[in-house]
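Example record

The entry below shows one chain as it appears in the dataset: sequence first, then structure tokens.
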Amino acid sequence: MIITEETRKKIIPIASGKGGVGKSVLTSNLGIVLAANGKKTILIDLDMGGSNLHTYLGIKNTNPGIGNFLSDQKKSFDKLLVETEYPNLSFIPGDVLVSGTANLLQSEKNAIIKEITAIEADYILLDLGSGSSHNVVDFFLISNSGIIVTTTQAPAVLNAYGFLKNSLYRHVYRSLRSNKRAADSLEKALKDKTPGSTPTAQQIAAKIKRIDKRKGQAMLDECAAFRPHLVINMAEQPDEIDIAESLKELVKNTLSIDLGCLGVVFRDPAVNGAIEEITPLVVAAPDAPASIQIERIAQKIIQSERFPIMPLDLDMYEDSFALARLEAETDHVEYHEPAAAQANGVAGMSAEDFLAIVSAHRKRIAELEETIKRLTISNYSS
């Protein structure tokens, strides 16, 4: 696993425990925004068996991609790079022109990973498939800086947790294989299906330490090094961050992982409009709330020279989730409450009355208006 904060090049896998949460929309638009900020960015479609990232970029699926590489590994990824119409942005297609790549051999995955790590770029975004198959998990584990996209619906949140759990323990199991007793101890703990019997990462590490002290400590170190971030997508209300914070606590208590949050993207009709036009959202509707929120996420990544470590101003925000909450509250007042009032045609309310209500909301969060300003993390000096 690449420790991204120690590298100039940032490889960022983007996954979702569940399909239909907007992962590919986020990946494509985030890549365009990073590139628009002068960063050499490469998008790679690794949704094997279901590649469609080209659609969200407005590119026809006529270019050879990873499926062709697997058919002839003499070709390097450099030959697969497709220059897009957006400056600084290149794209490597998936397997749309070659069938039979949904289930990869480990040697094939290793070959793909080797090629990815050899690419020169500022940012490499990997659009992974949904779910927790070995394909998806192994590509997510390329680096410690993966992004999980989820909604706050219960199935999506549970699947996001399951994905993180599967990813962590697959990574830990690999590191334990040189000690069969330690690896068997982990496997036994995870196979126990008795309700409430699954031990925490700390408890598993304690058992492994009794077998091999060095391996047990290494497991805890792996947990600490794993720094995934959450993006909450298709939100309706700011208080949905409560569910995400509950997930953060669950992940910390059971997996010993410090889960971060890059922000909240609200449900926005402009997204479906852009998809129908086969045009990226940030191009079709750059002033749409979702476009602005994706821009903010991109700026957080850019300003974090040691991403996934973000230089938060801890005098103002407890953590990245607290920051995301403040941003969501501000966005909801600015974009969604006026739109809802207009759509509902509030009976008997004059324009002056409506503006007075909006002003009252703004007064409650005036201090946020002064500090957030679209990018609410302080400049980082390494």
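Notes for this example: The radius of gyration is 22 Å. The beta strands are 10-16, 41-46, 82-83, 89-92, 123-130, 147-150, 229-235, 260-266.
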